[in-house]
Design brief:
This protein is of the alpha/beta class. The chain contains 16 helices and eleven strands. Bound molecules: iron/sulfur cluster. The site of iron/sulfur cluster (SF4) has 17 residues, from helix 15.
C-alpha cells in the first residue's frame, strides 16, 4: 500500500535507529504530543530501541482522555432525558462519568447512538423533528472542521432541534503550558502530524523560539516516528532551534485552509479545562456567541456538575511528561482499562492504557 507499507519497513526503521545511536552524545527528553504516536511507540517498542540517553515522555494529545469528567457527566445527564437522541463517536460511549457511562444510559432506555460523522447527527435531527438531537463534539483540531460543518449545515437547514456539546482543545496552548512550567523536562517536541495536516505548523515557530525548543512535525507509522526522533535529536545536538516537517507527505506549513476557514466561522478561542491538568488559558474552541442556539450547554440545564477525580491518579503529571504510567501506585491494580480511574486509562490512546496493553509494568 503506497505511503503506508514503506513506513513500516523494518530495515528502514533499523537503519534510522542506527543513525540515532550514531548522532546522540547527550541525554535528551523528547515529548510526543499525540496519543496515537504514544500508542505506536509503545506498541512497536520504539522507546526501548532508542539509546539510553533519549527519554520519550508522553503528551496530552488524547482527546478522549482530556475531556473533563464534568463534561462526561453533563453528556450523561442530557442523554438520560426522554426527548433526547444523544449522538457520539463510539469511543466516548464507554468512558465512565462519575457513576456510569453512555452504554449504561442506553441499556436503561436512553436513545444513545454512535455516528461516524457529525453530519449523520444532523440527518438524525432532520428525520426526527420531535426530538432534541445532541452531538458530543470533542477532540483536537482534527475533528473540529467536521464538527463545525455540522453546525453550519444545521443552520442552513433551519434546524431548531440540533445542538452540540463542545469540548474542543488545541495543541499549541498545551505546548505553551508544558514548556512554560517551572517543572518542565521537555527539550524537544514531536508535533502531531494529523493536527498539522489541518492547521499547518505556522503556529509553532513562536513557541519554538520562546522556549528555545526544537519542534518536528511527525507522523504515526514506525518509520515516521523514528525519523521525527532523529530529526529532533540532530537539531538538539547541533544546538539549532527550528521547526521542521518530517511528515511532508501529508503536512504543509499553511495546512488545510478551507478547513481552518470553516473552524473560524463556527468556533472562537476560549479557556478550556483539560482532564488531569486543569484549565489552560485559551486552549479550547467554543461555539461563537451568535451560534448559541446550537450550544447544548445553554439549551439543557447542566451547568453545576462538579465531580471529583480519584486522589490516586497522577494522570496530570503523566500528561505533562513529569511521570510515567507505572509510577502510579494504582496502575494495573485499582486502575485498568476495565476500571479506569483517570484520564490516561479511559481511552486506548491514553498513555496508561498503552502501557497496560503492552505489559509495560517497569522499564
Ligand atoms: S494508572 Fe489510572 S490512576 Fe494511575 S495515573 Fe493512570 S489513569 Fe490515573
Amino acid at each position: 500500500m503506497k505511503y503506508i507499507d514503506e513506513y513500516r519497513d523494518a530495515e528502514l526503521v533499523k537503519s534510522t535507529l542506527k543513525e540515532i545511536h550514531r548522532v546522540v552524545t547527550k541525554p535528551w527528553v523528547l515529548m510526543e504530543i499525540c496519543g496515537g504516536q504514544t500508542h505506536s511507540i509503545v506498541r512497536h517498542g520504539i522507546d526501548q530501541l532508542l539509546p539510553d540517553q533519549i527519554e520519550l515522555v508522553h503528551g496530552p494529545g488524547c482527546p478522549v482522555c482530556v475531556t473533563p469528567l464534568e463534561l462526561i457527566d453533563k453528556a450523561l445527564e442530557i442523554a438520560s432525558q426522554e426527548d433526547v437522541i444523544f449522538t457520539s463517536y463510539g469511543d466516548m460511549l464507554r468512558v465512565p462519568g462519575s457513576s456510569k457511562d453512555l452504554f449504561a444510559i442506553r441499556a436503561s432506555g436512553g436513545d444513545v447512538r454512535v455516528v461516524y460523522s457529525p453530519l449523520d447527527a444532523v440527518k438524525i435531527a432532520y428525520d426526527n423533528p420531535d426530538k432534541k438531537v445532541v452531538f458530543f463534539a470533542i477532540g483536537f483540531e482534527t475533528t473540529a472542521p467536521a464538527n463545525a460543518m455540522s453546525v453550519l449545515q444545521a443552520k442552513n437547514l433551519g434546524l431548531k432541534n440540533f445542538s452540540v456539546l463542545v469540548s474542543h482543545v488545541r495543541v499549541p496552548p498545551a505546548m505553551h503550558a508544558i514548556l512554560g512550567s517551572p517543572y518542565n523536562r521537555v527539550q524537544g517536541f514531536l508535533a502531531a502530524g494529523h493536527v498539522c495536516a489541518v492547521m499547518g505548523y505556522w503556529e509553532y515557530p513562536p513557541i519554538s523560539e520562546k522556549y528555545q525548543t526544537p519542534i518536528v512535525v511527525t507522523g504515526f507509522e514506525p518509520l515516521d516516528i523514528v525519523q521525527g526522533i532523529l530529526e529532533t535529536v540532530k537539531l538538539l545536538e547541533a544546538g539549532k532551534i527550528e521547526v521542521n516537517n518530517a511528515y511532508a507527505r501529508t503536512v504543509t506549513y499553511e495546512g488545510n485552509q478551507p478547513a481552518q476557514e470553516v473552524i473560524s466561522q463556527v468556533f472562537c478561542e476560549c479557556d478550556r479545562k483539560w482532564r488531569g491538568i486543569g484549565v489552560i488559558p485559551m486552549s479550547g474552541w467554543c461555539l461563537k456567541p451568535e451560534l448559541s442556539e446550537f450550544n447544548a450547554e445553554s439549551i439543557f440545564d447542566v451547568q453545576d456538575i462538579q465531580p471529583q477525580e480519584s486522589p490516586l491518579c497522577i494522570a496530570g503529571e503523566i500528561l505533562q511528561g513529569l511521570k510515567k504510567p507505572h509510577d502510579c501506585k494504582a496502575f494495573g491494580v485499582q486502575c485498568t482499562p476495565e476500571t479506569p480511574l483517570g484520564a490516561t486509562m479511559v481511552s486506548g490512546e491514553g498513555a496508561c492504557a498503552a502501557y497496560y496493553k503492552y505489559g509495560r509494568i517497569k522499564e
